[in-house]
């Protein structure tokens, strides 16, 4: 049935190819990827099918129509199959997909992991080419900071909601907002907060913690962006 829906949709817009991604239970990755318009050889040549990273990841997080003249030229494009449909010749991806799925995937994985201790799923938003701009050291420090921030919320905040924002422009910015409060650690600059501040300082950035608009607490970790290529 789903394949038929994709085929009809492609026919309506006079498209040579069509595809449909079905989200998994977490609503963050694809459980199925259904494509039409490909012969068996072309389909096999694609290799590993999309899981919801890169441009597909943007559409999962912000499900709005996106028209692109060339998928491979988008700043969030990576891992594009060199023998995918519509390519005239083999072309290596602009950015190599790492085995762990890249920073975007890892942030989402940490959010899912934190749900166990928080009692609910944090909300995650991305802005900018997260998977293509973050170099290895910056990504590692950001992820360590996020893990520490989520741990602080679980231990001290008594929160019912957590929002995680990752922005990449001239700077890499991580914000973690909760509707509780991080407790006594905010007053004595506890060990976790010092760790987060030191990680920012090592990369020439800064760290701040304070009250969030509307109540609760927000931590902001900001460092200069360093391209990964």
How do the helices and strands line up, and which of them pair or pack?
Layout lengths: L1 H11 L5 E6 L6 E7 L3 H7 L7 H8 L40 H17 L4 E5 L2 H4 L2 H22 L4 E7 L2 E8 L6 H4 L2 H12 L3 E6 L5 E8 L5
Structural descriptors:
two-stranded antiparallel sheet, Heat Shock Protein 90, 2 domains, alpha+beta, five-stranded mixed β-sheet, 21% strand, Beta-Lactamase, 229 residues, 37% helix, 8 helices
Quick gist of this model?
Helix content is 37%, strand content 21%.
Report on the architecture of this protein.
With 229 residues, the chain is an alpha+beta fold. The protein has 8 helices and 7 strands; from the N terminus they run H-E-E-H-H-H-E-H-H-E-E-H-H-E-E. It has 2 domains: 2-73, GAF domain (Beta-Lactamase, 2-Layer Sandwich); 102-224, Histidine kinase-like ATPase, C-terminal domain (Heat Shock Protein 90), CATH 3.30.565. It has helices spanning 2-12, 40-46, 54-61, 102-118, 130-133, 136-157, 185-188, 191-202, and strands at residues 18-23, 30-36, 123-127, 162-168, 171-178, 206-211, 217-224. Strand 1 and strand 2 (30-36) form a beta hairpin. Helix 4 (102-118) runs parallel beside helix 6 and helix 6 (136-157) packs antiparallel against helix 8 (191-202). It is elongated, with a radius of gyration of 20 Å. The N and C termini lie far apart (42 Å).
